[in-house]
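User: Mind token order:
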Amino acid sequence: MSKTVSLFSALLCTFIWGTTFIAQDTGMDNIGPFTFNAVRFFVGFLAIVPLAFIFEVKKFKSEFKLDFKTFAILSFLIGLSLFLGSALQQVALLYTDVANAAFFTIFYVPMVPIIIFLFRKKSIHWSVWPSVVLCLIGGYLLTNFHDATVRLGDTLVVLGALFWSTHIIFTGIIVTKYNLPLTLGAIQTLLVAIFSFMIGFIYEEFIIKNILNEIDSILYAGILSGGFAFVLQIYAQKNITPAPAAIIFSLEGVFATIAAWFLLNQILGANNLVGCFFILCGVLLSQLLPLIKRPV
């Protein structure tokens, strides 16, 4: 798979994530966050699993001959990271607004290279660090955060960003070992659905009528974001290392802002446009600077 296809997959994935922020926020008018995530990710699982059987069932034996135990452990860690990241983000939306949530979520951009550097002892291209700074400044301007107040929910979003970071890192590890993106996508969505249902069953009420009232948000967030977007992420990370991938994924803030302008008629101010520009510059730098070879 070429890097061009990976970049396209990353951009499409990020577009879906960005536009899903609206569905995540409006989808909890009648149900709790864990109920929303349980149904959302189960819908995503149902959308992916037939494709996994059609396109990857023949690969199982050859891929699992390598090391099934490693695949199982990494799949569980990816599913757990996705559950914790999405759960904390979803619960946080009850206590903070979308602007704050969008800003603090992109804290995974600096977290990914820091975690890789500290725990995996891998060198990182210097271009990552200025790109990270540009993305954080862009996120600050993009979300009008300077007009907001820090809330308890923001702490949950920052903690969630840590698990988004580990999700990106673990995904980067597993895609270098196994070529089963649809299978991995199905496994992680099923794990999130199970974990969410277990907690939702204890602390929330599963009322079918209320769930059906949010069906539009659930289907969009489930099939596109919870299902196919995370499969696209796996395809993207086949040829993009975790740190630059995290920078590209920060474009979800740009897409969220554009979606809010288009769908909710929210006005784009000059600071929002400058924020979009900063994030775009950060993404471009992270991809173009490593291509420049130093003179011998």
